[in-house]
Amino acid sequence: MAAPARVAVAVLAAAVVALPAASSARPRCRGDVAAVICAINAQRTAHGLRVVRGDRSLAAIARAHSVAMVARRRFAHGDFSARVARTAWARSRRSWAAGEALAWGTGELATPASTVAAWMASAEHRAILLDPRFRVVGVGRAFGVPVPDVSDPDGRTYTADFGT
């Protein structure tokens, strides 16, 4: 019998730091990371907002964070502003704002659509996904889950880092 699907969305994921559209059927929306961005953009479009475009620098730190959370079995933002400040994306700007959303899930709740639906069901995450200041996003995914009492190699852990 399959294990029940589980999901967690970080309450802390409402981290927003300010410092001095597409459908999933389209080719660019295939794969977990692209599908998350497409689902985010579908929500933004439905709310009258501009879509966000993928950013490689933010995606690299998001991916590294997802992998680190699974490896350390710890679901937390850590020092989000320091992680972003070290990127080429942040260093190329005089000022910037960023936000982060985290989620993990197993089974059907590990899909990109379920992840974005969970973020939209959380007021803190919804505010980040629908923040009109954000123009770019980097999404990272890791296989596995970041909690010690759940062992599911088919689970997924997602980090979405947004920027102005």
The helix/strand order is EEHEHHHEHHEE
Low-confidence stretches: 10-25
State mean pLDDT (0 to 100 scale). 86
Name the beta content range: 15-25%
Q: N- to C-terminal separation?
A: 45 Å
Shape: globular
List keywords for this structure.
6 strands, 164 residues, six-stranded mixed sheet, globular, alpha+beta, 6 helices, single chain
Characterise this structure.
It is a single chain. With 164 residues, the protein is of the alpha+beta class. 36% of the residues lie in helices and 20% in strands. It has helices spanning 32-46, 56-72, 80-85, 88-91, 112-121, 123-129, and strands at residues 7-9, 16-18, 53-54, 97-105, 136-143, 156-163. It is globular and about 40 Å long. The relative contact order is 0.27. The model is unreliable at 10-25 (pLDDT under 50).
Short structural summary:
With about 160 residues, the protein is an alpha+beta fold. The protein has helices at about 30-45, 55-70, 80-85, 90, 110-120, 125-130; strands at about 5-10, 15-20, 55, 95-105, 135-145, 155-164.
